[in-house]
């Protein structure tokens, strides 16, 4: 009755001690992964409750009240969103004299001597969009052959006539093992991207992905996950426990230019466990083909 009257809840936050009345209510209104209990109320009773386990209810951890409030504001939104800028829209710096090969939406390959100091090698014609009130996750695809170091610069430029520079973030390749997350701000902005390099070898610059972040609560959806191989190639996956009985249904997303999960509601109607898998690479996916590590990762997840 509550769901019929109010609609599906995107996020449920509990500040109350365990009780059977509460968990019986959760059975009616919770979806897997969308319910969190304040850590100060989390207990063994919560951990052992069947409804809590079925809906993957988890404790919400935080260091202070400000962090808690920021976290709740950051993840309490409907839907999902992700896009990218293609390497075919990257402009090679005119001072770079090495070999340049554009490989469509897959990568821009630069080979040669980059110098002893960091020097610009490429910038993107198109900016990413920073959406206000969202934590924005950035994941640049790149790979390196030889003794080359990269340095990415992300500049937040406020929309409007003045186009003021708000913030500049400079990260070397070894600092990008995890996605960059830009905290939520109360205004829209653009994110420009430039890359510098030093050393000698070959650089493979792929797309730069932008997503609405769920912080540590999931990728795209609450409970969503991502796999990334040693070449920074990704796939995303989401497991829904359904009725917790066999068989497991696996859905691979087809061609999809927007990044995120596909087929959620269709699979949910089957009321059985299901696994969604998506390929956010290139333009619309890359047929789930990759390194042996990448392909084995898909098998392992299933």
UniProtKB/TrEMBL annotation:
<dbReference type="GO" id="GO:0015031">
    <property type="term" value="P:protein transport"/>
</dbReference>
<dbReference type="Pfam" id="PF16929">
    <property type="entry name" value="Asp2"/>
</dbReference>
<dbReference type="InterPro" id="IPR022267">
    <property type="entry name" value="Asp2"/>
</dbReference>
<protein>
    <submittedName>
        <fullName>Accessory Sec system protein Asp2</fullName>
    </submittedName>
</protein>
């Amino acid at each position: 009755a509550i769901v019929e009257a109010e609609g599906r809840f995107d996020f449920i936050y509990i500040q109350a001690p365990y009780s059977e009345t509460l968990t019986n209510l959760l059975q009616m209104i919770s979806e897997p992964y969308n319910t969190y209990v304040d850590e100060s109320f989390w207990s063994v009773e919560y951990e052992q409750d069947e409804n809590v386990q079925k809906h993957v209810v988890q404790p919400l951890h935080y260091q202070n009240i400000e962090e808690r409030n920021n976290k709740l504001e950051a993840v309490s939104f409907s839907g999902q969103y992700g896009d990218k800028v293609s390497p075919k829209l990257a402009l090679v710096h005119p001072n770079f004299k090495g070999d340049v090969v554009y490989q469509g939406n897959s990568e821009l390959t630069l080979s040669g001597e980059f110098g002893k100091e960091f020097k610009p090698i490429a910038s993107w014609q198109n900016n990413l969009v920073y959406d206000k009130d969202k934590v924005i996750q950035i994941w640049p695809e790149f790979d390196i052959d030889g003794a080359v170091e990269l340095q990415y610069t992300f500049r937040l430029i406020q929309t409007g006539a003045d186009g003021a520079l708000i913030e500049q973030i400079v990260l070397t390749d070894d600092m990008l093992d995890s996605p960059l997350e830009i905290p939520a701000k109360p205004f829209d902005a653009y994110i420009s991207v430039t890359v510098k390099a030093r050393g000698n070898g070959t650089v493979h610059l792929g797309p730069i992905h932008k997503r609405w972040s769920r912080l540590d609560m999931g990728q795209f959806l609450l409970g969503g996950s991502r796999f990334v191989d040693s070449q920074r190639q990704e796939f995303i996956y989401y497991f829904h426990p359904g009725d917790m009985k066999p068989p497991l249904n696996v859905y691979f997303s087809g061609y999809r230019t927007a990044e995120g999960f596909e087929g959620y509601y269709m699979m949910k109607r089957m009321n059985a466990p299901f696994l969604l898998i998506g390929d956010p690479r290139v333009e619309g996916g890359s047929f789930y083909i990759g390194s042996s590590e990448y392909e084995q990762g898909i098998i392992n997840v299933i």
